[in-house]
Amino acid sequence: MKQISISTFGTIKLNSFRPLCKNKFGLEAIRKYNFPPFIDGSCRREPDFQNLFPSITSLCRQRQFAPHLQENDIIVYITVGGQFSPYKKGHHLVAILQVEKVYKTHKLGESAYINIGLPIPSNCMVKDNLPYDFDKTTGNFKNKIQLNKYLSQTPQRKIKFGKTQISVWDNDYLKKSKSWECFVMTRPIYLNLKNPRLILRTDFDNIFGKLPNTRTPNNLSEKEFKELAKLIGIDINLGERKATAHN
């Protein structure tokens, strides 16, 4: 088992996201563009796992998550439950991130990535940082009827529809970024975007006594965090817990 030491840490959170492989539309994007299957599937990857320093914002959960994060906090990311064909049905443990820096605005976050020579993350809502094209996402279809209608269209109509959908999708994200402006840079402790460990219901029962709710991200105890890490072959040694305003 791999040994990892974390010298200083704050609050430990469990969060979930919808991966690109969650539906047929996203699977086609994976095939077409050779994307890792377990990245986020929206037009603004939230979180953006593909950066050397993954980023987190309020584009998904608004006030419920990112605004409460502070330096040294730890976030465990799992997928939402579901059938991710050809992957096994259930939750997958994709990442363990630790907060490196919290910026008050997306613009300050952009400057930080530029200063260290890294590309601007897709969830950074700044000028000229465009969203992913529609065919590089899981789509934001309201239901299967809308999806099937899209699939029946000509290539030209699909392109037109996709541009309209991205405009609506991205404008919604822009409004959220203005209401909750913080931008969080993290560093990965663990990251597996290709074949992450499936977490069984028995695993959740053994660790939590139930299936945890991640719609509003929960705090994890040190013991729960260590037990989750052991599922992916990591023995975590935690050092000093840093007192924070939200503890």
Name the features:
alpha+beta; 7-stranded mixed β-sheet; 9 strands; 29% helix
Structure description:
The chain has 247 residues and is α+β, with helices and mostly antiparallel strands. The protein has one domain (2-241). The chain is built from six helices and nine strands. Strands 2, 3, 4, 5, 6, 7 and 8 form a seven-stranded mixed β-sheet that branches. It has a two-stranded parallel sheet with strand order 1-9. The model has no long low-confidence stretch (mean pLDDT 93).
- Count up the helices: 6
Alpha-beta classification? alpha+beta
DSSP helix fraction: 25-40%
Q: Which spans have pLDDT < 50 for at least 5 consecutive residues?
A: none
The main pleated sheet reads as: 7 strands, mixed
Q: How many strands?
A: 9
Calculate the mean pLDDT score and round it.
Answer: 93
H/E element sequence? EEHEEEHHHEEHEHE
**Multimeric organization:** single chain
Structural domains: how many? 1
Quick one: overall form? globular
Radius of gyration: 18 Å
Quote the distance from N terminus to C terminus: 31 Å
Q: In percent, how much strand structure appears in the residues?
A: 15-25%
Give the structure's gist in a few sentences.
With 247 residues, the chain is of the alpha+beta class.
Mind sketching the topology for me?
Blueprint: E1 2-9, E2 12-17, H1 24-33, E3 55-56, E4 74-79, E5 91-103, H2 106-115, H3 144-151, H4 155-179, E6 183-191, E7 197-199, H5 201-208, E8 218-219, H6 222-231, E9 234-241
Parallel strand pairs: 1-9, 2-4
Antiparallel strand pairs: 2-8, 3-6, 4-5, 5-6, 5-7
